[in-house]
Amino acid sequence: MPMLTLKFKKNTIADYPLHKGKSITIGRRTNNDIVVENLAVSGHHAKIDSIGDGFVLTDLQSKNGCFVNEQLVTSQWLKHGDVVNIGKHTLVFSYGDGEARPEEVSAQVDQTLALDADMFRKMVAGNPAAPPPAAVESKHPLGILSYLSGGNGEITLTKKLTKIGKDPNADIVVGGLGVGHTAATISMRPNGFHLSHVSGLFKAKVNGEAVKDTIQLKEFDIIELGSTKLQFFTKD
Amino acid sequence: MHVIESAGLSDTGQKRNDNEDSLLVDNGLGLYIIADGMGGHRAGEVASRLVVESMRGHIKRCLAGAAPAEAEPVDDSLSAAANQVRDAIVLSNRVVHDAANGTKDYRGMGATVAVIFINERTVVAANVGDSPIFLVHKGRLERLSVPHTVQAELRAAVSPGAETLNAAFSHVLTRAMGINASVEANICEVPYFTDDILVIGSDGLTDMVTPGEMLTTVIRHPPAEACRLLVDLANDRGGPDNITVIVLKVKETSNGQSKLKNLWSRVSEGFTSLGSKKRTID
Fold first, then answer.
1. pTM for the full model?
2. Is A162 helix (H, G, I), strand (E, B) or coil?
C-alpha cells in the first residue's frame, strides 16, 4: 500500500500507510487520522479517498488551501512522488519499491465496451483463472417463508415484490382485524430481501418489533401479521 | 398523490469531445432514465438517444392504455409496472440492435441503461450494463442495480480471476443494449417512503466520486444543486468520461402521510403495545 510521509522542513515526523477502501482526513483537530499541529492548518483541512485502485486528495474548503507539487488544487489524483503542502508541512505520497502502481487513473476509465467473443479470448489468454461467460452468471439465493402458524408448508419468494395482506389477490393472504389489503411487501434486492410496511391499522412484526417502514430480513427472522407467523430463511 | 422533486444534469467532462450519455427526466410519466452510449462516429450518442426515446414511447403508450399488441409474454415474477419496464427495455434493445445492423456507421453501437419508474406505491428500478441506481433510505445508501461488468460478475462468482484482471477490462460489459438481439435486464421493485432519495448515474460520475461523497451531497442539498455539485466534483478530478446524474427526492407519498393517518397509526401502535403488555401480564 502507498505511504504518506509527514515532514516539517527537512525532518520526517511520521509515516502513514494508506489502505484501499479507506478514507483518511488531515487537519489540526485531534479527531483527524493525520493531525498536523500548526495554526496555518484548518481543523479539517483535507481528505484522501481510495477510489478504484487510486487515491484522490480533496481540499475540505480549508482556509489556506492544499497544494500538490506547488499547484493549488481542490481535488487531485495522487501519483508516486507527489508532494502535498498543507500549511508549512509537507506530505509525500509514495509507493514502496516493487509495489504495483496504478496506471494514470484517467487512462483506466477507458471507452465503455461490450464483451464480444474476440475480446473474451484475449482476456482469457491473460487470465487462465477466468471462467467462461456461461459460468459467470451470478446466482441469488432463494428466499423461503415457512409457516409457524396460520398455514402449512413453505412459500418460495419467486416474485420481485411479494404482497402480503387481506386482499384475496395478495401473494400471501393473511386475515385478521386491522390487517391491510396489502399490509406489507417483501422486495428482492441486489443485497437481499426487505420487508416493508404498506398499509393497515396493524403493522407486520419482525422478531416482535413492528416494522414502520423497511427492514432487511435476516436468516431465521420471524414475521408476524394478524394470526399468521412465518419464518424467513434462504436456500442456495 | 405522491410528490417527487427531481433534477438531472449531463456534462461532456474534460477529456471527451462528445457527450454519449442521454438522460430523461419526465415527471408526468414518473420515468427517469440514463443511457451511456458506446460506438465510434457519434454512434454512441445515437444509441443512447434511441434507448431513451424508445423506452419513453413505450411507457407513454402503456400509461395511455394502449400497450402494443406485440408485447412480450407476461413475466409472473414481476408486477404490471415492472413488466412494462421490462417490455420497454426488450423493445428498445431491438430498436438499437436493428439500427446498428441496418447502417454501416452504426455497426457495433450500444448503450447501457438505468431506469427508474415511479408509481403510486412502488419504485421499479431496472438496468442493463454498469450505470448504477442507488436508493437512500434513512441516511443509508443501497445499490438497486446490478453491474453487468466482467469484473463484477467474476467477483460475484468468487473467482480469483477478478483481481488479476487487467485494468483495461474493468469496464468491459457483459450485457448492453443493442449488442445482441435479446437482452435481460436486472429488475428490482421496492416501496418508497417520504424523504427517500433515488440517484441514477453514469460511470463517469461513480468512477470519480465515492459513495460517501454522493450520499452526503444528495442528503444536504436539493436535487438540482446536488446534481451540479456532483458533476463539478467529477470534473475537478479530471472528468475523463461523460458525467450524468439524476437525483429524485420523495417529498410526499400516497401511502398516507397525512396527519389524520399518522394519528391513526400512532393509536394503532398504542393498541399493539397495549396488547403485548397484556399478554406478558397474563
1. 0.73
2. strand
